[in-house]
Amino acid sequence: MKYSIWYMRPEWFGEGISGARPDPKNLEATHVHLKDVHEFAETNPLEAIYGAMQGEVWSPRARREG
After folding, report:
1. Measured between alpha carbons, how far is 9 from 20 in angstroms, rounded to an integer?
2. What is the pLDDT of residue 52?
3. Whole-angstrom Cα distance, residue 46 to residue 64?
4. According to the 3-state scheme, what is the secondary structure of 8-27?
5. Cβ atoms of residues 34 and 59 within 8 Å
6. Cα–Cα distance between 13 and 8 in angstroms, integer?
7. Is 63 helix (H, G, I), strand (E, B) or coil?
8. Which of 55, 39, 36 is nearest to 47 (CA)?
9. Do 3 and 40 contact (CB within 8 A), yes or no?
């Protein structure tokens, strides 16, 4: 299964934490797409996503230094 990871844009943060709902058909207007994470063989997909989002795994800086 594929999970898309999105980050709320700072200019929309006030509305977002106040209960406004983003438009799923136009998510780019309120969020930035970070990456897609494919579920690994682990039983808990949230653990796989958490691991995939750690800086040493996805950070461009970590890739340059590693």
Report:
1. 13
2. 76
3. 27
4. ECHHHHHHHHCCCCCCHHHH
5. no
6. 6
7. helix
8. 39
9. no
At 7-65, the pLDDT tens digits run 999 999 999 999 999 999 999 999 999 888 876 666 788 887 888 788 777 666 655 55
**What is the rounded CA–CA span in Å between residue 46 and residue 33?**
18
The residues facing 54 across adjacent strands are none
Q: What pLDDT does 63 receive?
A: 53
**Measured on CA atoms in the order 20, 23, 28, 32, is the torsion positive or negative?**
positive
Spatial distance between the Cα atoms of 35 and 65, rounded to a whole number of angstroms: 21
Cβ(50)–Cβ(12) under 8 Å? no
Place of tokens 């949230």: 46
- What's the pTM? 0.65
